Amino acid sequence: MDNVIIPLIASTLRMAAPLIFAGLGGVFSERSGVVNIGLEGMMIIGAFFAVLGSYITGSPIMGIIFAMIAGGAIAAVHAFLSINLRADQVISGTAINLFATALASFLIGPIFKTGGQTDVVKGLSYSLPGFLKNVPVLKDLNWFVILAIVLVLVSNFVLFKTPLGLRIRAVGEHPSAADTLGINVYKMRYLCVILSGVLAGLGGAALSIGITPVYKEGMVAGRGFIALAAMIFGNWKPTGTMWACMLFAFGSAFQMAAQSFTAIHLPNEFYASIPYILTMLALAGFVGKTTPPKADGEPYIKGER
């Protein structure tokens, strides 16, 4: 059983990390009142630019920085469309998803001279000091898992224990009241949307150079939407989002492990569908029981009551 359970736990944690980063990004964006359907596209951009940064510089750390900057840049576009132009936030996010997919696919050809995937680049190495190297599960993780858990704790503290978090929640619940108290609604929403792109880009990096140091078309495979579902399932809270991501990641890890079961013969497509079935069941069972920020998705016009 140890040969099955321990690798399954480690695999769940590794697969949860990209979802947690993107899910936290969604929490910050929607807590400020901006719906971010574009998490999928921001993860795609992050995954590609992480590989590109590592390819150009030879450093996976620089790859991570490339991913975060690229994710933040495309999120700034979503922020401008949603906040300044007051465009439909769902349509803006959908457009970003389509653009990011096309951009990454287009850049593979001229940069890597290949089609469909990039070259294999240097990934982020993982080693633990002393006796920790022999601790079950812990020895089979990566730095992104540890960073994801730390960021959940930090995000929870910032949102619910600091004045900045109070301002973020205020502009997402009642922006006009926040404005009368001197809080710059546009500034806070820009900050949170761009931060969501940075975190989603980091999630993309965790998926590429954190697990397999290569970018392939379709490798994100809807994880941005799963992270969005995890955020809703987690009631727009960092800790709740993390546990929801763990659940969905367990579905992914289990479907990979289940394909090696010799006693049960089912089509691989059935196992591959498990994470998405879990997502649909979670949304169907809990979406009506969660409470989004009151002004989520509503453009704010200064001076309007």
Automatic annotation (TrEMBL):
Pfam families to which the protein is assigned, alphabetical: BPD_transp_2
Keywords: Cell membrane, Membrane, Transmembrane, Transmembrane helix
Membrane topology: Multi-pass membrane protein
Keyword flag Cytoplasm: no
UniProt KW Transmembrane keyword: yes
TM region positions: 6-27, 34-55, 61-83, 90-112, 141-160, 190-212, 218-236, 243-264, 270-288
CDD domains, A to Z: TM_PBP1_transp_TpRbsC_like (cd06580)
UniProt subcellular location: Cell membrane
PANTHER family for this protein: GUANOSINE ABC TRANSPORTER PERMEASE PROTEIN NUPQ (PTHR43370:SF1), SUGAR ABC TRANSPORTER INTEGRAL MEMBRANE PROTEIN-RELATED (PTHR43370)
Protein name per UniProt: ABC transporter permease
Organism: Clostridium ganghwense
